[in-house]
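Field guide to reading this record: the first block holds the primary sequence, the second block holds the structure written as discrete tokens, and the final block holds curator observations. Each block starts with its own label. This record concerns ABC transporter domain-containing protein, catalogued under organism Eruca vesicaria subsp. sativa.

BLOCK 1 — SEQUENCE
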Amino acid sequence: MADPGAASFLTRANALLRKNLTYQKRNIGTNVRLIMIPFFLCLFLLAIQIVFDALINNADDNRCGCQCIVTNQNGNCINKTCGIEYSSSDQAFFCPISSPPRWPPLLQVPPPESRAVNSTFLPDIGLPNESCRRTGTCPVTILFTGNNRSLGASLYGNLLPSSVTVNISDNSEHLLQSLAYNVLGTETEPELTNYLDPGIASNLSIYNIQSGCSPNDTFPFSFGQDRLKFQKELRCTQGLNLWRNNSKEVNDVIFKGYRKGNPEGKTNEIGAAYDLLNTDRNNFNVHIWYNSTYREGSDDRPSTLLRVPGLVNLVSNAYLHFLQGPGTKILFEYVKEVPKLESRLRLDIASLIGPLFFTWVILLLFPVILSSLVYEKQERLRIIMKMHGLGDGPYWMISYAYFLSISVLYFVCLMIFGSAIGLKFFRINDYSIQFTFYFLYVNLQIALCFLLSSIFSKVKTSTVASYIYVFAAGLVGSFLLQFLIEDSSFSRGWIIVLELLPPFSLYRGLYEFGEYAFQGNLSGTDGMKWKDFSESAMDEVFIIIIVEWFLALIAAYYIDKIVSSGKDPLFFLKSSFKKSPSLRRPSLQRQGFKVVVEMEKPDVTQEIEKVEQLMLEQSTSHAIICDNLKKVYPSRDGNPPKLAVRGISLAVPSGECFGMLGPNGAGKTSFINMMTGLLKPTSGTGLVRGLDICNDMDKVYTSMGVCPQHDLLWETLTGREHLLFYGRLKNLKGSNLIQAVEESLKSVNLFHGGVADKPAGKYSGGMKRRLSVAISLIGNPKVVYMDEPSTGLDPASRNNLWTVIKRAKQNTAIILTTHSMEEAEFLCDRLGIFVDGSLQCIGNPKELKGRYGGSYVFTMTTSSENEGDVEKLIQDVSPNAKKIYHIAGTQKFELPKEEVRISEVFQAVEKAKSSFTVFAWGLADTTLEDVFIKVARTGQAFNVFS
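BLOCK 2 — STRUCTURE
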């Protein structure tokens, strides 16, 4: 098959996306369970709301009262009538009012003990002495200012009537008109509605404010009818109008009259104030000050009415008097609420407790995403994908988009289901605000998962930690953050500081949704809309989430570059211009350093000289070149540094399989890890097809295949799906991809019997090993590293695998590690024996056996009595022979080849048979295993004493 070339960015991204979608399909059960969690929580909230409605919202005490009119013989009511007249004080609030009562307009005036008097902290502006408080005769003070003082004097002189004009014998209809000629006030605070004015319904008197009156003048009268009939007392109170020079003075007096505005901490209130501005005969322009400090709630959401209309009417009448004379009046007869239908208590408890549950719902994605990323790290799937050509760019783009798509689908399902079952939390608030908020937060959550995945190495640890984080965040938000938000004395700045923690910014947003839904449902209005965005805390929450998302994403990418790619922490400051691949780094020898090579290793010396020559060439047919490659592990736990690889120089041309032999711990895997980018060399360099493994590893990966020592597979993906994924990474497409996958499956005996379409988690160890070999070879990579590829295979499968590898090496450079001498002889064109991190010898199997196997092995079995005869026989044949084995009559000897001829050995044995009984005998040449053992022992002994 022709070389498909390097895969493009989009091709690799497409491969990862297809793999992720297939993986998601395999885990559909887990996904369904994940989606069902918010469904169950929404149903749980709905159940709580239904129970609350039955016990509280629909309770008899929270509904308009009724009386039974007709009962049947059993005493059951068959006809009833409802209304205010049948209701208790609690029930009356919910009754329909088709014709609301009319109330006389009242001014809000300070109580007698709080009215402004002369004091040390106020300038002497004409206020009465404090003695009036003891007699209850302190006036209600009204301040004036403006550009024209003479006009102001005319206006405030006409502001208040001079006498009481009330006919107490009038009925309620005429009494309202009679009261309209007076200025009435009350110290009783208003309520949210005006269906029942507390100033009329309370036991306190109504004040009639005049320019002058006798102390304690009172006028009793009756107001209203039926159940809303009140006996009231109209008490005369003097009004005091004072002029100030400008609005600053007015503001100063009003502020100092407020309890917290003066050093004595006592109220000294002004009733109201007017700034006439530029009012004249042609212009009427007035600012009115009034006291609203008693109001509950925040400034942008008042919870009570304000008694302002009467103040407007007073100054308007005074201006008409100024223009037209005292005969012209605007009679302000009454105030009245609009009619209302029967209402019921609508406390949406689900919206109040919803933030806790929905915080958990959204945060439940956190452990799912984090464990997925840590799983790829724990199982080393990320690095094996990278070794087969998946760059950081496609990985980040597809992984992020993949998790974002899952997250969006998750919270959209939550919104749809919550709305469908009728939760006001979702239905009242603007859907676009909700979607934007959730969308921004899940982006932040994904970025945090990428960032935190670099901390954890085990899935279990990350899962436990993330679930603790999820539930702790919800509980702390509900029992601490919400308490601090609702505490008006707690600094808003500290609230913002707390919201810098991502789960608290999530909880704050959900809390605002819940509050707006609760208030909207209670008052029958809309919840949060975009017009409320700046008035609520959502603007600051959005800003915090966006900024933190941006910072977390940059930090996650930066740390990933350092951890997964082995880059320098200051890589972004490095020059973007890399070395040309043709510029070879001088070897240590050319830099003036002496390379020490033992004289008994001429093959190693020859390889070093070959590498030195290749490093000087501009181009070469050698796919792999290593020049004095070293790896030193730093000291740890008091141990000295570990020299794992001691300056290896090696050149492997295309079409050659180079076998690496060596005992465990010799440094073979460290060498492979350096060449595949898992480890960074301490010194030296390695070139793969002219590309430096230290600087150009991302390009190296596009033409590389790896069969790691341990199988790195997705348990839920099938063998076919693994090969399709890695085939796409190698730029195989269409029919070429299908053909390559089928050929790979057939070559490793995974095609028939449905094995190709079984999940890899159900494969045996040998089947997984064969699949790993097939993955490393798909797409005809130019360089392949195989770390013990036939481990765990039965003889038949092993021989078949050897055939596959031997066929694949025609256009590929393969470096293979193995402990099987038979495998090494069958597959490898050349062998290198590693001992303690250094090469002891290099050559093809025949050369090594000829070079290091300079003896025959003679074996003979006789009776115990004839063992001495066997030893004498060997001494006659080879005086320098060595006994290497002896047990129960069986003896083995090493015979130097230069001392014996095979024919002489046969003649000696035939002659010996006539003297004593020989049960069995044999003469064998040195095996590769013998060579390996000999070289390994010699190398270890040399390193111990060197």
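BLOCK 3 — OBSERVATIONS
The two ends are 51 Å apart (CA to CA).
Residues 854-925 form a domain with the Alpha-Beta Plaits fold (CATH 3.30.70.100).
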